[in-house]
Amino acid sequence: MAKFLKVPILDLVANGTTDGDGTGTDKLIDSSATFETDGVQAGDIIHNSSDNTYTEVVAVDSETTLSVKAGEGLDTGKAYFIHSATVASLKAAISADNVKVVSQASTSTTTLKYDNGGNTLMTLTHVPVANELGAEVLQDALVKVLQLHWNDVSYDISDDVEVAPMQIIGYAVSS
Fold first, then answer.
1. In whole angstroms, what is the distance from residue 51 CA to residue 29 CA?
2. pTM of the full predicted structure?
3. How confident is the model at residue 162, as a pLDDT?
4. Domain that holds residue 169
5. 17 plus 64 within the same structural domain
6. What SS3 class is residue 44?
7. Statement to judge: residues 101 and 166 lie in one domain
8. Is the separation of the CB atoms in 10 and 41 below 8 Å?
9. Burial grade of 78 (CB within 10 A; 0-12, 13-18, 19 or more)
């Protein structure tokens, strides 16, 4: 019987492209944004996808300007995605069967390779974590789901205080 690991995917709150230079003022500036209306909050996660860097919202200054961590303001023309730090409406069901390798491809991605006769890969994008922590968290959770009673088919990583959940913002499957 197949077993699945359920992992929460943090909600996307806002996205866009900066059109003002916030590097000297620790800001994210986007004149077409609606940060207050969108519900952006202090603590939310900003992924600067142009440079594949991450920072955190410190304060919502206005509909079009956010204060970010010191020294991490965004330059003009940077694509960004803002994810809630607390709300995960979607949970991805990750198959625990036939996982061959779990590796941390970068500080912000962890990949599962499946031994299913092909080269199926699942890549989880998450807030950067040091060393192999992302892979270790997933390996520990996969072991737990495989050790469940035979009729328990899924395990929710967010319910486990012993397995530190990662802040996952997206996933992709490829073969």
1. 16
2. 0.87
3. 65
4. 4-9+89-174
5. yes
6. coil
7. yes
8. no
9. buried
